[in-house]
Amino acid sequence: MRDFVLAGLVACAGLAVCGGERAQSAPSVAPSPSFVSSKEPKSAAAPVAAATLEPIADARLGAIDHAVDLALMEGRFPGCVVVVGRRDKVLFRHAYGFRAYAPEPEEMTLDTVFDLASLTKPMATASSIMVLVDRGLVRLDEPAARYVPEFGRAGKGAITVRQLLTHVSGLPVETPLRDFELGRAVAMERIYDLVPRTPPGQTFVYSDVGFLVLEEVVKRVSGEELSTFAAKNVFRPLGMSQTTFRPEPALRPRAVVTEQRNGEWMRGEVHDPRAYLLGGVAGHAGLFSTAEDLTRYAQAMLGEGELDGQRVWSPRTAQQFMAPHDVPGGIRALGWDVKSSYSGSRGEGWSPRSIGHGGYTGTVLWIDPERDLFVIVLSNRVHPEGKGNINQLAGRIGTLVAHSPPAGGETAAIANPGRGGAVSGAVMPGAVLPGIDVLRAEQFHRLRGAKVGLVTHAAGKARDGRSTIDVLAAAHDVKLVALFTPEHGLGSDREGKIADARDAKSGLPIYSLYGRGENGFEPSPESLASIDTFVVDLQDAGVRFYTYASTLRHLMHAAAKHHVRVVVLDRPNPINGIDVAGPVLVPVAKSFVNESALPVRHGMTMGELALLFNAEDHAGTPLEVVPMRGWRRGDYFDKTGLAWTPPSPNLRSVTETVLYPAVGLLEGTNLSVGRGTEMPFEVIGAPWIDGNALASALRAANVSGVTFAPVTFTPRQAVYAGQRCGGVRLTVQQRASFEPVHTGLALAQALRALYPKEWHFADLDKLLADRKVLEALDARRPLADVEAMWAGELEAFKVKRAKYLLY
C-alpha cells in the first residue's frame, strides 16, 4: 500500500497541498476576525458554500495550511477538506491532497463526499430523536423500553433515552459481528437480550449499541426508517441535498475511497462493518455528506435549530440538544462530545459550551455557540491501509481557530482568558482582576447590543472600587435595563425576605431573587420581558450553605426556560480554591440554603459552579463565564490585592469568612454565632455555656491551626439578643493547618458532651445535612472515623469538580 502514497506524492509534483490555489488577494471588504481560503470544486454537480465567504488576510491562514502540509508530508492521511465558519459566514475553506490513491490518484475537491462514520450518531440519530422530543413524541427521561418494549428485557427497563444519548446506559461498546451477519432482526434480538454491565448512569462507555437502540426508537415512534425520517425532517429542511445513507450513483464518483472489502475498494459504501451488514443504514454509522452540507448543519446548530428561515428544532430543544451533561469521567451532550477521553480532535481554547464529534474514517466537527464558531475537518484517513490519523491535525486547527480574535474584528486586551496569560502585558502576582475588569478590558465585546439584567450586590465592584452597576451603565453599546439582587439585597446589609424596589442612584428597577412571593427565588416573568442577557457579579463565600450559589442555579434554570443568556463575571473563592472538605449534600436534604450536591467547602468559584450546574442539570442555559486574571487557586482573598467588601451583613472581614464553614455549621442550632456583636463567626456561645469548660474541652481535642479562648458577650440582635452569653472565641493561627469543617465538628462533639440537655444537637443537621454523620457524632465516634464516612463521596466530587476548574 505504501506505493500508493508515494505515487500520490509524485503526482503532486512536490507540492504537499494538491487541492488548488492558496488564499488569493482579498476583495475590498470589511475585515473578518478570522481566516479565509477556498478551492472551488472541479465538478459542477453541487454548489459550494451557500453562506457568505468572508475573505481576510490572517497569519493563521498560513498556519492552517502549514499544519495540513506537514501532516500530508508525514503521510497521516491522503487529503482533507477544512472549513471554518460562523453562523452567517464561512471564514475559511480549502481542499488538500487526494481523495484517493487507488485504484488511481484523484485530487481532493471541496465537493467530495465523505463517509462520516460516527458523526452519524449526532447528525442523524440524535438529531432525529430531538425532532421527536420537540414534537412531544419522545421524552428524554422516559425509559427507552417505553418506545421499544423488547429493550426492557434482562434488566434494562430503567435505561432512559437520555442515558443512551450520553453513553451512560451500561451497555457495551458493540456486540459480536456474527450477530449482524444473521440480519437486523437477529442483531436487535441479541441486543434486547443483553444484560447491562453496570447500572445506568454509573459509568461512561461509548456505545454503538445504544445508538442502534435509539435508531429503533425513531423507527417505532415515527413509523419510518432512520434514513427516511432524518432526510425528511433534518437534512432536506436544512438544504443538505448531499447528505444521505447509501449514496446514489450520481454521488459516488465524488466519494472518497476508504479501504478494500472483498478485494474491492470501498467508495460510497459504508466502511463500518456492522452498518454494512445492516444494509448501509444504522444508528451509529452509515451517513455520507460533504463539507458544504456539514457547513449548513453547523450553522443551523449555531442558529439554535434554524437556517435560512427553516426551523428543525425549537430554540429550547436546540439548547437541550447542546446542553452539557456531567458523566463519569467527562462531559457529554445529547449525542455529542464536550470534554471526555474522545475529545482529542477538539483542540484548546474552546468554550465550555462547545460540542463536537469525530468519525472513525477521519471526520471531525466542532461547534462553539459561545464563540459563534465551527470547524470541519473531513478526511479519509483509513485510505489505503487504515493506519492514518486526523485527530492531531484537527486539534491543531481547532486551537488556531479558537484563539482567533473575537467576533467583529476587535482585538481583545486580554489573551486566553482562563489559565495563565496576561492583561495588557502582565498581571503582577497578587494583583487579581475580577471578571468585571476583564470584561472592561475586552471592551465589553461579549455584551455588544445586549439588554442586560445585572445580578449583583455591594461586593460587585471593579478593582478600582467602581461598582459593576456604574461600569456597565457607562459601557458603549450595552443597555443596562434592570438590577436583580440575592439574599441581603443590593447593599448586602439586609436580613429576611426582600421586596422589589427601585435604585435611587440609577433609577433602575430592582427585582428581588430572595423572597418575592411564592416563586421568590426566580425572576418574575415581567422582569424578564425587557432583557436578553443576565450578567451575574456576586461574591460568594466558598461554602455550601451560603445562598448565592442557589440564586445562581435558580437564575440559570429561569434563563434557560426564557431563552436568556447568562454571563458570569468570576470572582475569587475567598477561602481558597484548593481545599475541599465535609460531607457532600444528598438529594433528600435539599433546601434553598443547602441546595446543591456540594461538600461544605467546595473549593470552586461562582463561574466554575455555574459550569458544573449547567452540566449537572443539563438545562441548556446559554452560559458564558468571564474568568479572572491573576488569581492563584491557593490564595485567600486577602492575597488578591482586592479590597474586601462584605457580601453579607456578618461576613465583615476575610477572617470571619475563613471561620464561617466552622462556626456557621452550627448556626441552625440554639447557639449564638456572634450575630449582633462585633465578632460574628469569631465567637460561639449561649447563656448556659461555661466558656472556660468549653475552651478546655476544645484544647484537649488538639484541633490544629486555631485557638479557643473563653469569652462572654451580649448579642444586640438575633439569637439570645440582650442576654449575656458564655462561650469561646476562635482565632486562626495557621491557615495552612486550620481545617474549618473538622473544627466545627470538634465544637459539636464538645458541646454534645458538656450540654446534652441544653444544646439542641439534632438541629445541627439543618446545615450539616447528613443524618449518618449526625448519628456518628451522637455516638461519640472519633472524628477521624466520622470524617472517613464521607471520604469516598468527597473523592468522587473532586473528580467531578476537576472538569470545571478554570484556574
TrEMBL record:
<feature type="domain" description="Beta-lactamase-related">
    <location>
        <begin position="72"/>
        <end position="388"/>
    </location>
</feature>
<dbReference type="InterPro" id="IPR001466">
    <property type="entry name" value="Beta-lactam-related"/>
</dbReference>
<dbReference type="Pfam" id="PF07075">
    <property type="entry name" value="NamZ_N"/>
</dbReference>
<feature type="domain" description="Peptidoglycan beta-N-acetylmuramidase NamZ C-terminal">
    <location>
        <begin position="658"/>
        <end position="807"/>
    </location>
</feature>
<feature type="domain" description="Peptidoglycan beta-N-acetylmuramidase NamZ N-terminal">
    <location>
        <begin position="452"/>
        <end position="654"/>
    </location>
</feature>
<dbReference type="InterPro" id="IPR048503">
    <property type="entry name" value="NamZ_C"/>
</dbReference>
<dbReference type="Pfam" id="PF00144">
    <property type="entry name" value="Beta-lactamase"/>
</dbReference>
<dbReference type="InterPro" id="IPR008302">
    <property type="entry name" value="NamZ"/>
</dbReference>
<dbReference type="InterPro" id="IPR012338">
    <property type="entry name" value="Beta-lactam/transpept-like"/>
</dbReference>
<dbReference type="Pfam" id="PF20732">
    <property type="entry name" value="NamZ_C"/>
</dbReference>
<dbReference type="InterPro" id="IPR048502">
    <property type="entry name" value="NamZ_N"/>
</dbReference>
<protein>
    <submittedName>
        <fullName>DUF1343 domain-containing protein</fullName>
    </submittedName>
</protein>
